[in-house]
Specification:
By secondary structure, the protein is mainly α. It folds into 2 domains: 11-64; 67-112, no CATH class. 45% of the residues lie in helices and 4% in strands. The chain has 4 helices and 2 strands. It has helices spanning 22-35, 39-56, 88-97, 99-106, and strands at 76-77, 84-85. It has a two-stranded antiparallel sheet. α1 (22-35) packs across α2. It is rod-shaped and about 85 Å long.
């Protein structure tokens, strides 16, 4: 696939500093040298070509997925039987009702 760079009429230009990683910049310089143009001209032409592809629907350069909101949920667990409760009130109630398994887990004396 070719960039098919065309001479364009003079237009207003905006200077922009673009930071590239070393490997991408080396590629841009090598490709620009093959075409006999400056690296910044090559990069500008690549951006123009990318715009054409995006506007025609052939390419989406960046896909942004919707962030999913995750709700934090606190669970409470009985250390003796590992039963899980969503509310601390229910864990307390569980411990009050079934003291035997908790005392045996603690290694203590059985309740009278």
């Amino acid at each position: 696939m070719s960039l098919r760079i065309k001479k364009s009429k003079r237009t207003y230009k905006v200077q922009q500093v673009v930071w590239l990683d070393a490997e991408s910049f080396a590629w841009a310089v090598a490709e620009a040298n093959k075409l006999g143009i400056a690296p910044n001209v090559f990069i500008a032409e690549v951006v123009k070509k990318a715009r054409e592809f995006v506007e025609s629907g052939e390419w989406t350069p960046i896909r942004v997925e919707q962030a999913v909101k995750v709700e934090e949920k606190i669970l409470y667990c009985c250390p003796a039987c590992e039963k899980v409760f969503e509310d601390i009130k229910w864990l307390r109630k569980h411990l009050e009702v079934d003291k035997e398994h908790l005392l045996s887990w603690l290694g203590g004396e059985r309740a009278p």
